[in-house]
Design goal:
There is one protein chain. By secondary structure, this protein is α+β, with helices and mostly antiparallel strands. The chain has one domain: Beta Polymerase, domain 2 (2-Layer Sandwich), CATH 3.30.460.10. Helices cover 17% and strands 25% of the residues. It has a 5-stranded mixed beta sheet. It is globular.
Length: 146
Amino acid sequence: MSNPLWNHDEAVALCVVLESIVPDYGCHVALTGGTLYKTGQRKDCDILFYRIRQLTCIDMTGMWAALAKVDFEKISGFGWCYKAVYKGKSVDCFFPEGERDENGNEIEYGAVEVVAPTECPTGWVDLFPVEDFSSLLRTPDGEVIF
């Protein structure tokens, strides 16, 4: 039986595996939590999944299916936090943008229908529903940020 605890080197190796897969589904990964900044073994590995800035979507369905092929299985979760297991070890998966309903309440990915997703293919989650991005590139007094 394998050791269910994580160490730093194993956590980094997991990030390498994940990063070889998840960009195809609209995100990157980053290691965080105890396996990053504490010594010794940890009970779980904390991974941040963040949207590729140039995209408005993460294909959650496709991503979880692809990750299952490398023995990375989603167990539970919704919104910004999912529990997973990789080769028998516990992984906490964080999606900082989450998905929210029209009132701003956090909900499970895919729990609401995205109306007319112009930038997102069917089945993808629109995490950044903005039609005119120019307003995001300016300060309130109109100065261009970049």
